[in-house]
Amino acid sequence: MDDKLTVLVIDDELDVNNEIFEVIKETGFYNVIKAYSGKEALYVLEHASADIIFLDIKMPDMWGIDVLKELKKKHPDTAVIMLTALSEAKYAWEAAEAGAFDYMTKPFDRTDLLFKLKKAGEFLSRENQEKEKWNLFEEVQNCAKTNPDRLYRFWDEIGFAKGTKNLAELKLSKVKEIFEKTK
């Protein structure tokens, strides 16, 4: 399976949509798909997922902030970067309240676009790591209730793995590996 993040570009202006698409595609680090309207984007997201979305605020079929609200209901973990003309920057606050990760003014600067894209990817990575930690924590809690012997073996293995270091210094992947080993 492909480990690349998927980016969806939603803008009714063909030139803008294609330009953003090409800039992202050229990096080679992302899968990129596009939609040209709010309704098309919501349809696309019923059949595919996107990690990061560039979403135009002003589109003829649906207001971008309404699209944002709809997609956040079904895809709350998606990082959405709103696209707005300079004269529409006043809507950035409304977009932030609706769950937008960031916004970018048009015409856009290529470097700014790539910076915002990288920042969104890093945010998603940290957020996923936090979720993994909490999921592992819940597994360990359940283990304490259902299989105390496994829990003791797990803590013994953690002690050997960490030596004199603090448990917090162990990488999440190592803790997960040890937990799986004690099944």
Task: Tell me about this structure.
With about 180 residues, this protein is of the alpha/beta class. It contains seven helices and five strands. Helix 5 packs across helix 6 (about 150-160). The longest helix has about 35 residues, at about 110-145. The protein is elongated, with a radius of gyration of 21 Å. It starts with a strand and ends with a helix. The model has no long low-confidence stretch (mean pLDDT about 85).
- Spatial order of strands in the largest sheet: 2-1-3-4-5
Helix content: 55-70%
Order of helices and strands: EHEHEHEHEHHH
User: What overall form do the CA principal axes indicate?
Assistant: elongated
Strand content: 15-25%
Radius of gyration: 21 Å
What is the first-to-last residue Cα distance? 27 Å
Instruction: Tell me about the largest β-sheet.
Output: 5 strands, parallel
| Contiguous helical run count | 7
Oligomer: single chain
Protein structure class: alpha/beta
Quantity of strands, as a count: 5
Give the uncertain stretches in residue-range form.
none
Average pLDDT level: 84
